[in-house]
Amino acid sequence: LFWQTRSQDMSGPVTEDQEKLLDEALSVVKLQAFQMKRCLDKAKLMDALKHASNMLGELRTSLLSPKSYYELYMLITDEMRHLELYLLDEFQKGRRVQDLYELVQYAGNIIPRLYLLITVGVVYIKCSEISRKDILKDLVEMCRGVQHPLRGLFLRNYLLQCTKNVLPDCVEEEQEDSGSVSDSIDFVLLNFSEMNKLWVRMQHQGHTRERDRREQERRELKLLVGTNLVRLSQLDTIDVQRYRSVVLPAVLEQVVNCKDALSQDYVMECIIQVFPDEYHLATLQDFLQACAELNPAVPVKNILISLINRLSAFATRDGSNGIPSDIPLFDFFSEQIAKIIENKPDLSPEDLVSLQAALTGLALGVYKDREDYVDKVLETTNSGLDKLGRLDSPTKKSVSAYLLQNMLNNGTLVPSSEQVEQLLDLVRCLVADPGADAAAAAAAATATNSLGGDPGDGSANGAGPDSEADNEDLAEEQSLLGRVVHLFSTGPDLLDEQFGVLKTARRILATGGGRRVKYTLPPVVYQAYQLAIRFHNRQDSDDKWRKKCRKIFEFCHSTVCGLAKCELPNLALRLFVDGALVVDKIPFDQHDTVAYEFLSQAFSLYEEEISDSKRMTCFAAENHEPLRSQTVHAASKLLRKPDQSRAVAACAHLFWSGRPRELQGAEMRDLKKVGECLKRAGRLASQCMDAGLQAQLYTELVNYYLYFVLQSAGSNLDVSQLSSTAGQLLAKIREILSGLEPSADSEHIHKHFEATVEFARSQSASGDATIAGLLAQLEL
Amino acid sequence: MMNFLFGPSADLEIHLDGSDDRKKGDVLLDSGKKEACPVYFDGEAVSGKVNIRLKQSKMEHYGIKVELLGLIEQFSDRSSQHEFLSMARELARPGILTQSCCLEFEFVSVEKPYESYFGVNVKLRYFIRVTVTKRLNDLVKEQDFLVHTLAQYPDTLGGIKMEVGIEDCLHIEFEYNKSKYHLKDAIIGKIYFLLVRIKVRHMEVQILRRELVGVGPNSMSDCETVAKFEIMDGAPVKGETIPIRLFLSGYELTPTMRDVNKRFSVRYFLNLVLIDEEDRRYFKQQEVTLFRRRPNRHRRIAQEQHQSQSADTAQPVHQQPDRSYFHHRSAHFGAKSPAAASGRTAANADGANTANNNDDNEAAVSPGNSDNSSSQSGESNDQ
């Protein structure tokens, strides 16, 4: 009676609290289950069936959400186990209740009737397999009577659960009457397609505004549908042949025809996951064909990627035989993917790229020796991404960035000029601004200049109105691109081709403007430097290496000059200097002139552009007299006195450790010049107004003096001049320090000074006579 | 009876031969009680004994006779009892009984043309009546027995197949495997949905019994829902096929009686009812003929068929106490709707509306708001 009172408002709105409804239903179930079990104990089967029927009647409700309904279902099916066990027990004792299968069908309501029928049917099967085939067929057919999606899904799930261990699993010849595996297949396939239909139908019920909720509810129920496929995969007798000819076609037909995106997405994924890889290999074409026919809303790429990844893993797994050679796996996939791209004009570029990335993974994982496959992927990707032109800029960029990141992760090499060209064309939104952007940037730059804007720093060029974040994004993208440049490699042997690649890369990357070349060209230059070294290393096998090296350096020179013109003097300077270092190591004809050219360029850049004195230390290892004097000259021209002082002091090293060619690699150790430099530095320091700063500079100078004194120890150089100057300095420092106000700065200087003195003491203690003399002089 | 007022001078007891072995069935007595009585078939002899136990030392009588009677009684008019069968034997000439005695009787090959029937407005009963004629109060004793009429139709007879619908709304095709079913039969069929534009909530097959008593202006009709059997839950879509399997032995049914002595008829209909979410009903009635199967060699063939349906070929079918108990309650089993549980009250309500029943073969799927509005014309769009 209970359900009947509620059945009045079965179509009413679901306003009542789910929890309350569920509790009510559960308590009815518990009561009825209790009475059922009591009747079973007293062997009153008919009364027990009546209570079972009342209990099952609770499943007729329309008021519960799928989640609550599931809970109710679980409790009820749990209780039904008691009935099943009782019947099994009775049957096995030989006490059969005749016509039970017919008796339970007198139940007036279909839901309790079918649950009882399934329960009894399975008991019959378990007791005697003779009519197994007919009962299974009858059960799955009778379930058609429940067309309500939720109730139908659970009923059929009950059918599937109950028949779990009784499905015939043998080939036709063995068992005529009790059925064979093909009966099981028919059974599960029918159940599957009916359940799928019900599941799809759920989507079309009720208000459109509850669409999202319905989708969510459907997702919660997907496992019920998938269990069918799991059951099929558990039938041992289904071999590849049967899978290909019977199982898969039926599943695919149902999936394709249902036209429901959620279902297609899930079932396809489910097929991939539950059946063995060998089966997938044997049916690849059918499967992929079906993929191409799915609802456009289905993320086919996920399905394909999942399949590709699974097969890649399968092929590379230990103990597997790999992909059979008669299955052109790669060709299948690449054709299918091409088809999908063709059939789905609105396929998002992200999807497209991730598809191609999975394909690359397959090519790299399974076909290690087939580099042309990777080429093919890139080619397809390229043509596919022609559509990128239609995208808005951020999407384009993120797609390109994704592609690049993927290359980096996989270490995909780009081995030819053509491919470099293709690749850069593909990501051209990163390589250069589109026309409009460039114009805007130019205008912005003018505006900045007219306002007297941001001087000096190269990155400010063209930054215009871009926000800080934009600049960060740009830096990120461009360094990605820069890293990819390192992947432009033809391999260890094809050096000439490598040069070609670099030339191509430069040609294209140079179009990016100052903001970009800052990140992208340096890798090209360094790659070129490296290439030169490799040519040098191979001098025995290539007699033209000298000429080629020269060519490379010319290339580098023009590139770096280009950078310099883009108002990136710092960068150009560093590249020139590093270049000079490389030239130094490679003794090709006139390499000294080339090195000179590099350095002189660096100087002229320095003179013209750089005001930051810190760069000075770069010059510490130079070769030529003019450069040295130029350096000193340059140092003394620095703007701020402290900088001047420091730079000139640093220049002292030039005259000490420089290795001009005349001395055949020995250090020049020009003590006189060193002394002059230091003195000059001291003079400059003394011109500082700030006493603290002065003390700091003096302390640093004392360090220089100590260094040179220690360096010359054991040589015949006279360092007395140096040590006396140092002594004077120390005295001065003491004086200044004593007059300083205590502060963080003065504290710091004090410490530095103490440390210096401590160092000198330790040296003298270690028995250095000169130092000891010096220290004596300093009256420590 | 009158004789009880004065105390009977003797007890009469009628014992029908073989009644312990005979199949029994319920007879609905005037008191409303049910009594299990033996079943006879057409042409069978009815024989037995009359035991007369005297309570006094002697009893004078003016003759003892035994009658076999077939009566049709209309409840509305007690006086209009109609004897369609009347046979009499004289058991003893007038005289004096001095001791208890046992008198045998036999009616050989009695033609029993009609089935016993206990309906809403009419009753058809058979009984043996023994009368001891006395000066003042006759001693009378009656003993009811049941008559079952048997029939046999070939199984190859075609079934019922029909397409019905309401234009642009609902279009179905239904099929029952036969048009004539025996009482232990199962109705096998299916519903095929060709077009569904309404939100069906569920669908059921009902068995209706229509009893028509009398002729002309005085006739009385009654329609009773004997069974309600849900065959579909939820809304199907176009293309779905819903199976029907309804075992008749779960219900209290009689054979179809088309014309019983020009007094009444009892006919059965399968009513396919669809109920939509607004509780509108769409239904289509089809007459089926019910009959009692002749228990002969055909029975065995039919039994095998029956067993394959019950999916138990291992054992022969027996009548078990359990089962009849279950049958008895089956109308309550699961379906707790008032109509099914207390069929008669609902039936009376139905009866009032179906008094002017139309041609039963008229195809009508009619939307209406309840079962009772069986006016099959009106809104319906006949196909």
From TrEMBL, chain A:
<comment type="similarity">
    <text>Belongs to the VPS35 family.</text>
</comment>
<dbReference type="GO" id="GO:0005829">
    <property type="term" value="C:cytosol"/>
</dbReference>
<dbReference type="GO" id="GO:0005770">
    <property type="term" value="C:late endosome"/>
</dbReference>
<dbReference type="InterPro" id="IPR005378">
    <property type="entry name" value="Vps35"/>
</dbReference>
<dbReference type="GO" id="GO:0006886">
    <property type="term" value="P:intracellular protein transport"/>
</dbReference>
<keyword id="KW-0472">Membrane</keyword>
<dbReference type="InterPro" id="IPR042491">
    <property type="entry name" value="Vps35_C"/>
</dbReference>
<comment type="function">
    <text>Plays a role in vesicular protein sorting.</text>
</comment>
<feature type="region of interest" description="Disordered">
    <location>
        <begin position="448"/>
        <end position="473"/>
    </location>
</feature>
<protein>
    <recommendedName>
        <fullName>Vacuolar protein sorting-associated protein 35</fullName>
    </recommendedName>
</protein>
<dbReference type="GO" id="GO:0030906">
    <property type="term" value="C:retromer, cargo-selective complex"/>
</dbReference>
<keyword id="KW-0813">Transport</keyword>
<dbReference type="Pfam" id="PF03635">
    <property type="entry name" value="Vps35"/>
</dbReference>
<dbReference type="GO" id="GO:0042147">
    <property type="term" value="P:retrograde transport, endosome to Golgi"/>
</dbReference>
<keyword id="KW-0653">Protein transport</keyword>
UniProtKB/TrEMBL annotation, chain B:
<dbReference type="InterPro" id="IPR014752">
    <property type="entry name" value="Arrestin-like_C"/>
</dbReference>
<comment type="similarity">
    <text>Belongs to the VPS26 family.</text>
</comment>
<keyword id="KW-0813">Transport</keyword>
<keyword id="KW-0653">Protein transport</keyword>
<dbReference type="GO" id="GO:0030904">
    <property type="term" value="C:retromer complex"/>
</dbReference>
<dbReference type="InterPro" id="IPR028934">
    <property type="entry name" value="Vps26-related"/>
</dbReference>
<protein>
    <submittedName>
        <fullName>Vacuolar protein sorting-associated protein 26A</fullName>
    </submittedName>
</protein>
<dbReference type="GO" id="GO:0006886">
    <property type="term" value="P:intracellular protein transport"/>
</dbReference>
<dbReference type="Pfam" id="PF03643">
    <property type="entry name" value="Vps26"/>
</dbReference>
